[in-house]
User: What shape does this take?
Amino acid sequence: MLKDFARASRPVRVALNHAKSQREGLQPTKTDKTDIVAAMQRAELRAFMRTLPVGQRIATAMADSMMTEAVLDGSSPALSGLDERQVGELKDGYLQQKFGSRLAEISSLEEVFTEVNNAAYLVRKSLQEASGLPPISFEKVMGPLEVEADK
Assistant: This one.
């Protein structure tokens, strides 16, 4: 019965992992590292950002796609005068602007499969309780069955 459940719940795990990899695949445009002139322009934009008052930096970066890409291309948030949180917000906004419909589609799929996964969790928990095994012992049995089913 546990093996059957592991096989039956596989599509949910696969779908959630697929959605996660799709989301992770949506990244800012990669810049050509061999284009020295473009690299200098991005460095100049980041230097300009550092001259702005702290409160204006994030707004300025969000208002201009070239500025956004220059900040996101930097190897460190400090190069633009923004902190990690601000760079994260900037990246999220950029990705939303660039991939909004795809992100909405992924979110919709994640929501549906998360609900199904929650239901599978309840069934799994019921199986653990019905087995009489403590949770750790049940994991030692069920974990390998799910790994095998996911191959």
